[in-house]
Amino acid sequence: MTSSSDTPSMAPDKPQNYRPLLWLVAMGFFMQALDSTIVNTALPAMARSLGESPLRMQSVIIAYMLTMAIIIPVSGWLADRVGTRKIFFSAIFLFTLGSILCASSQTLPLLVASRVVQGIGGAMLLPVGRLTMLRALPRHLFLPAMSFITIPGLIGPLIGPTLGGWLVEALSWHWIFLINVPIGIIGGLATLRFMPDIRSDDLMPFDSAGYFLLTSGMVALSIALDGLSELHLPHAMVMLLLIFGFVSLTTYWLHAGRKGDAALFSLKLFVLPSYRIGVLGNLFARIGSGSMPFLLPLLLQVCLGHTPAEAGMMMIPVALAAMLSKNFVTPLVRKFGYRQVLVANTVLVGLSIASFALMTGDEPTWLRVIHMGLFGFFNSIQFTCMNTLTLKDLDGKLASSGNGLLSMVMMLSMSLGVASAAAVLAGFTQIMGNVANTLEAFHSTFICVGLMTSAAAWIFWQLPHDEPVVTEKSDTALVE
Fold first, then answer.
1. What is the pLDDT of residue 4?
2. Where does the chain cross the membrane (predicted)?
3. Rounded Cα–Cα distance for residues 429 and 295 (Å)
4. CB-based contacts of 240, cutoff 8 Å, min separation 6
5. At what angle do helices 273-298 and 438-455 cross, to 10 degrees?
6. Is 326 in contact with 477 (CB distance < 8 Å)?
7. Strands 198-200 vs 2-4: parallel, antiparallel or unpaired
8. Are 218 and 412 in contact (CB under 8 A)?
9. pLDDT tens digits for 39-84?
């Protein structure tokens, strides 16, 4: 049951114009998706400005992704308690404030702290916007509305790297954050005008203990991985953080079993084989894929001599191929089933990542474009199939909780991917000993990341042989 000052205007017998709300939510999704990719091509320029090594800038990305993973589980509960309008406005305000703080940062620690503020806002934009649409729109309009707002999520990664590279060359890296300010002001004013203030009167108590255990484990594991490269933590400290992280996650599992349905994420979700395998597959398969937006722009600029704008443009084939692949997913799964498609495609994604070890400065541009496109094609098929498999059997109360956990796992795995790749790259750089061997260090890192990704195929191998083909219901989950 929901209550809101705007509830009378939501009566189904009165025609409503939902378009302003859709544009508002789409704009929030665009801001979040754009900022997830626009920073990658600017890392070398940031490093020069802040007096840091470009190979040790991963915390700028990790801070944003990890913060989003931490905040996503609480965003829906806050919206139900405080109201969707207040939380969505707060999200835009924090995102815009974080952008201003990022642009004004003079040191790497300040920039990382500012990215945390930005990540808090970014984490709430899509979940709260999607929740508002679910509550405000008639059921028959929800699917086309979701299709509408996912378009900016595809456009953001398409233009983000190129726009970031161009802004770095034409102005400075500070402008990749400052461009969010006018968008944020417009979005904030539009939120006060068009966002309904919906909240829930039937709100379960928030599982604070479970939230603390889960987020503590995620933070500890991420810091441990980053401690191997950028933070230069002693090995004993890294080991303590790893143990603490695993203990926290194990304790959460025991806690959730005791709390039952009152847990932050009920263990009933894992009774479903499709969800259990889908979430674990998402976690480990995305670690490799999540590192590529960090590794590729660095490789192109640090080792192959590309400018930031050129490195950004080289990311366009990845995004275009990802959009093209959407037309192939449903026919493939209908013909071969989830098990065969995911096992084979996971190996192909891993091989395509490892194949970047063959990239040198001598290869022609057309071959490099095809190379990038093939990776984007297989990677997008992987994401779409994994998401559809994970969500397709969820019903009723489990749907919201399961979707929230999947969103958190996606952000966490990308954060772990960047941290892991940076740690491996730092290790190979140290072993090889000098700047002249940096390209070889990148090549070795791609091979390791590709092997890690391919290993996730064993998870999807656990799907039953008679996995049913895509139904009309599960087709609706093909949103990434």
1. 43
2. 21-43, 55-75, 87-106, 112-129, 141-160, 172-192, 204-225, 237-256, 277-299, 311-329, 341-359, 365-385, 405-429, 441-461
3. 14
4. none
5. 170
6. no
7. antiparallel
8. yes
9. 888 888 888 888 887 777 788 888 888 888 888 888 877 887 888 8
